[in-house]
Automatic annotation (TrEMBL):
Organism: Periconia digitata
Record InterPro entries: LOG, LOG_fam
Name of the protein described by the UniProt record: Lysine decarboxylase-like protein-like protein
UniProt superkingdom: Eukaryota
GO terms, molecular function: hydrolase activity, hydrolyzing N-glycosyl compounds
Length: 222
């Protein structure tokens, strides 16, 4: 489904971010700032469903402001025991308090999660998109996959890196070099937008214009 086919009930932002909090408090602060801007603008959140690290912080903060219906976490079954707080007296019991973290859906694998998250953003319509806060390999993998889905025309929603204290400078420099070196086309150079503050994130969500010339693949063809 493309944006033109989707309903525009309430925009949805998908946040990719670390299962860790990082060493500097600026990363947790940026997670909270992002949640506040989503709340102020009536934007819903879909995220990886964890209760730990930056993931837990952005979900917890938004639920505290906008309520549990504003957040949907989608977590693959094998990750539940690592990324959701569980009862230390019963290592097999993993529960999430939906009044704190929002609705949670457990899915079979990573790909199902990513497809579901992307569909919610697309169906939310204009004003939504994908935002990467600071994170590690998992965040990078999710960010790059959703960027390639834009390049392929599977979606046409904005992809934004929230570049806290230059955290994503290396990635942005790599994109510039890849364009200059001829490995990323000029028309794809702007798929990933940079935001330095939560307000910048909102601005990128509102002003993003998709470039022409995508393949317009469907889910089935990926
Ligand atoms: P990280 O940025 O490494 O802290 O990971 C952030 C989140 O990305 C993790 O909590 C996982 O839910 C998710 N993740 C980790 N590895 C992958 C992967 N190979 N594909 C998709 N998502 C992943």
């Amino acid at each position: 489904m493309t944006i033109s086919e989707s309903s525009t009930k309430q925009p949805v932002v998908c946040v990719f971010c670390g299962a860790s909090s990082g060493k500097s408090p600026v990363h947790l602060e940026s997670a909270r700032a992002l949640a506040r801007i989503l709340h102020d603008n009536g934007i819903k959140l879909v995220y990886g469903g964890g209760t730990v690290g930056l993931m837990g912080e952005v979900a917890r903060t938004l639920v505290s402001l906008s309520g549990p219906d504003s957040v949907h976490g989608i977590i693959p079954q094998p990750l539940v025991k690592f990324e959701q707080n569980h009862d230390p007296n019963d290592p097999n019991a993993h529960t999430i308090d939906e009044s704190i973290f929002g609705k949670t859906t457990i899915v079979k694998d990573m790909h199902t999660r990513k497809q579901m998250m992307a569909r919610e953003v697309i169906e939310g319509g204009p004003g939504g998109g994908f935002v990467a806060l600071s994170g590690g390999y998992g965040t990078m993998e999710e960010l790059m996959e959703i960027t390639t889905w834009n390049q392929l025309g599977i979606h046409n929603m904005p992809v934004i890196v929230y570049n806290v204290n230059g955290y994503w400078d290396g990635l942005l420099a790599w994109v510039t070099n890849a364009v200059e070196s001829g490995f990323i086309g000029e028309n794809n150079a702007g798929i990933v937008s940079e935001a330095k503050t939560a307000e910048d994130v909102l601005n990128c969500l509102k002003t993003y214009k998709n470039a022409e010339g995508r393949f317009n693949l469907t889910w089935e063809e990926q």
